[in-house]
Specification:
- The model is unreliable at about 1-15 (pLDDT under 50).
- A hairpin with a 5-residue loop joins strand 9 (about 160-170) and strand 10 (about 175-180).
- Strands 6-5-4-3-2-1-13-12-11-10-9-8-7 form a 13-stranded antiparallel beta sheet, with helices on one face.
- It is built from three helices and 13 strands.
- It has helices at about 1-15, 20-30, 245; strands at about 35-45, 50-60, 65-75, 80-85, 90-100, 105, 135-140, 145-155, 160-170, 175-180, 185-195, 200-210, 215-225.
Length: about 250
Amino acid sequence: MIKLILIIFCSFIFSTNITGYELAKMIDEKKQPQSSKSQITMKLIDLDKGREKTKEMYSISKDDGNKMLMFFKTPKRDKGVGFLKIEALDTDKLSLFIPKLKKIRRISSNNQSDSFMGSDLSFEDMLSRNLDEFEYTLLESDDENIYILQSDCKDVDSEYSRHISWITKENLLIKKEKSYDIKGKLLKLKFFEQIYKNNYHIVSKIDVTNLQNNHQTILEINNLEIDTNIDDDVFQEKNLKRYDKFVQ
């Protein structure tokens, strides 16, 4: 009984005294699978015209998502398009291979706000957020089970000025986020769903709406395999041209 009271008391102290930076650091340090393979369905929706398009991808990732190789399977015109991401402390490397052009395009920091394959995700959205590139503030929440974290961007090259995230206190899961453009106007509304697998909470669905152009993207992650053996040699630009080697 005494032990239970101490746990409740410590939990109360922890939840009331936590700072924005401490919360962001805890989320950043959450244990994630070292590697994964998955099939991804991406639905693109023009909300004004009521039109929908669907694309299918195959993704391989490693090192907490810092390395990723992705191929587009459908539609036919996108088949074989490859995307490579390698994140490092000194620099991030983003490369896109377009089979029709038979060339690999390097995505510079100046172009990271460009749309990723016609979606409402930018190349910047495909990158992990560097903990020290933001200033953090905890906002008041009406829900005792939810933290609201404001992250103000320090990077002058970012397409965003800040993000406001709704995070569960129990498992530190981001459920909703608002992202604002460099002028401070609301740009994107995002919703996230997670599954619990092999002791990890893993994002299984991302729903992003660009409120300025009234367009929506829904990503669903399926057939997920985690902590399989993936060689570092997989994540090389030459493999962007080897669709048939990686996609069955």
